[in-house]
Amino acid sequence: MSLEQAIRQAQDSTILAFQSKYELSYNIQRFDEFMALRKPQLMLRVAPNYQKIISDPTRDYVYLRNFNNLSAAASVNLTQKMLNLGGEAYVGTQAVWTEYFGSKATYARQYVATPILFGYRQNLLGYNPYRWEKIVEDQRVQAARLQHQYDLNNIAEEVAKRFFKLVFAQGQYDMYQRNLQAADTLYAIACEKASIAMVTLAELRSLELQRMNAANALEMARTSVEDARIKLASYLQLANGDELAGVELQFAQQPPTVSLTPAEAIDLAMANNPAYRLQVATVTESRQQAQKAYKEKGVNVALDINVGMQQVDNKILHAYRDQRLYALGGITLSVPLMDHGAAKSRYAAAQAWVSREESALDEMERRLKEDVMATMNDIRTYWQLLERTSEAMVMADEVFVLNADNYANGLCDINTYTLAQNRRDDAYTQYLSALEKYWITYYHLMTLTNE
Asked: How many angstroms separate the Cα of 364 from the Cα of each of 261, 277, 372, 442, 450?
């Protein structure tokens, strides 16, 4: 199994991948809903209503008698948000039927017909919520799309950690297996030499101890391999670690290099990090609330005007004849003459919250830059370390082979051979560690830049 195959398997099957997919779908559908509501809306409304008042029969008030009625209103309205102004324009038609009950009802039936009307309403002149909402929603859906890619990169990073943990464990297992084979061979040679008194008892016992230590180290390495295999299989949603048993792990022997400069990496991280982009949207939203609070602390002006044709009659057809032009205008002025500083405090609180969100954005930017700079530094360090440990591993192998031959031919003692073996093991372990850290750091940089 290659590293790329493991990553694709995880991105297709892990719980996080499914959650990220559904979250992205939710945010896209929510944005589509938002955009749809900014287009013309055609709505039919029907509202039946029944009113009955049980009045005092000793009091012969007309308005009490006439409030025993059944009515129904139906309207069709086409509305459009005026995105440049912040209000809503509408055009429509409506009809109202009212049926009065009771022996003393003044009118038995009444129709109000309005074939056509035009109007415009706005809750707060000088404040355009639609402009702010569009900016915020654009930023949020962009952050949602970036979050999905970020989640996939996070999955790739986690797979790389588990994959190379298994590579490291298998590498150590192979190393201890070679050590045990070499210890068995040398011990067998020493036993033959001991029969003709060419090896001392102390040297023979040292080789026997080395053989036992190699067997114990191999068993511990086998446990580490099983543990790493189970963790990787679990993350890939495989039934158990047995499916990875005997599978050769494949990855690029020449690790990928990074051509980005630290400044370019920082720019990519700030442009593509979903948490940072979401915080930008939060700052924009707080500024919207601050502007709204600023407008509300002075003179508040609300507007609702409409013009149309209307007629009232006790017959439906007559109500549509002889239409009369009407114009209704409503302007509401509200001035906080004495609110004990509530509007002023609301605006001050909104400003304080803007400052708080902006400082949070600055802190997030600082942490992001810090993480990118540290990761870029680690990339350079581990790349150099990988080159040096690779050279050291080749040299340690050569030295070990020479000392093994010398010991077999009686040209060096057991201590020299053991020292050469330990140095080879150290060089190989350092190489595996550098390889693991470089690949994990590389995928962490991919997560930060979100490419």
From this structure: 21, 10, 12, 22, 16
The residue whose two tokens read 């580490």 is 224
CA distance 137 to 11: 27
Amino acid at 258: V
Structure pTM?
Answer: 0.83
Q: Are residues 323 and 346 in the same domain?
A: no
Question: What is the residue range of 353's domain?
Answer: 3-38+127-298+341-449
Could you read off the pLDDT of 314-356 as tens digits, one per residue? 888 888 888 899 888 888 888 888 888 888 999 999 999 999 9
Helix (H) / strand (E) containing 99: strand 87-100
Burial class (CB in 10 A: 0-12, 13-18, 19+), 64: middle
Tally: H helices and E strands in the chain: 10, 6
Same domain, 416 and 435: yes
Q: Where are the alpha helices (DSSP H) in 199-341?
A: 201-235, 262-272, 274-296, 316-319
- How far is the CA of 75 from the CAs of 39, 42, 43, 95, 319, in angstroms? 20, 10, 8, 6, 15
Strand (E) or helix (H) holding 109? strand 109-122
**Within 10 Å of residue 352's Cβ, how many Cβ atoms?**
12
Q: What is the DSSP letter of 250?
A: B
Predicted confidence (pLDDT) per residue in 44-100, tens digit:
999 988 877 665 555 555 444 445 778 899 999 999 999 999 999 999 999 999 887
d(CA 153, CA 92): 52
Instruction: Look at the chain and report how many structural domains it folds into.
Output: 2
**Which of 409, 405, 432 lies closest to 420 in space, CA to CA?**
405
For residues 62 and 177, membership in a common domain is answered with no
